[in-house]
Write a structure and sequence with these properties.
By secondary structure, the chain is of the alpha/beta class. It has a single domain (3-111, 171-234), classed as Alpha/Beta hydrolase fold, catalytic domain (Rossmann fold, 3-Layer(aba) Sandwich), CATH 3.40.50. The chain has eleven helices and eight strands. Strands 2-1-3-4-7-8 form a six-stranded parallel sheet, with helices on both faces. It has a two-stranded antiparallel ribbon with strand order 5-6. Strand 3 (70-74), helix 4 (81-85) and strand 4 form a beta-alpha-beta unit. Helix 1 packs across helix 11. The chain is globular, with a radius of gyration of 17 Å.
Length: 241
């Protein structure tokens, strides 16, 4: 049995991981989903409090298994994992699921294409707030990713309004990163570059013909792929550095 800390992107909510969490728990694993939405509403700084929430969940789960908990980050959660791991005595591994990698010393705005930066800035209101992430895209885009009105409502209802300042914030140092073996699960073409970076680091990489929100819509596929990557890490594939 492994202990998994499934970290949702700060741009969405914990519901994005719940189906995959149930799939992993159904296979006998210990699973927690820390809720980062309160940190988004709490004001700056953002990254350090988010890392602290992740670390607190992982520390609470540390006694469940002999090995340290495995930190699994989806999408915008990926850059938080290195900072969170620095707050822990033991980490059993890292798995990035269609996620960015840690960016100490840089902001999200500094890592994205100029057109996306401009899109995000243009969406902000006069008080510096962005609409919830599902409203960043035309309805037909979200409908393609999340077929079924009930699924879209469940997912969207869990997503907070977002402060522009969170995207401008420079991430703190991540001393010791990576503290444990790491692997990468690519779900969509949008994360091909990140998967390439992971491969260049010597990590095991699994690439699926799926889509970015598969942890919500195809949980058994994602759970199985996460467990396969964890098995490869246990076999010595993808050590630190």
């Amino acid at each position: 049995m492994a202990s998994f800390i499934l970290v949702h992107s700060p741009l969405v909510g914990p519901a994005s991981w719940k189906p995959a969490a149930a799939a992993l728990a159904g296979r006998g694993h210990d699973v927690l989903i820390p809720d980062l939405t309160g940190t988004v509403a709490g004001g700056p700084p953002y990254c350090s409090p988010q890392a602290a929430v992740i670390a607190a969940a992982a520390a609470g789960a540390a006694g469940a298994v002999a090995a340290g908990p495995v930190l699994v980050g989806h999408s915008g959660a990926g850059p938080l994992l290195g900072v969170a791991a620095g707050l822990l005595a033991d980490v059993g591994g890292f798995i990035f699921v269609d996620a960015g990698l840690p960016i100490p010393g840089r902001s999200w705005m500094q890592t994205v294409p100029a057109d996306l930066e401009a899109q995000v800035r243009d969406m902000a209101d006069g008080d510096g707030w962005l609409p919830p992430w599902p409203r960043w895209w035309p309805e037909e885009v979200l409908a393609e990713l999340l077929p079924g009105q009930a699924a879209r409502e469940e997912f969207a209802g869990d997503c907070p309004r977002l402060p522009l300042a969170m995207f401008e914030e420079v991430h703190p140092p991540a001393p010791g990163w990576p503290q444990a073996a790491a692997g990468y699960l690519r779900l969509s073409e949008g994360y091909a570059q990140e998967a390439g970076k992971a491969r260049a680091l010597g990590w095991p990489v699994t690439e699926l013909a799926s889509h970015h929100l598969a942890p919500f819509t195809d949980p058994e596929l994602v759970a199985g792929s996460v467990l396969d990557l964890l098995g490869r890490l246990a076999a010595g594939d993808g050590g630190p550095g």
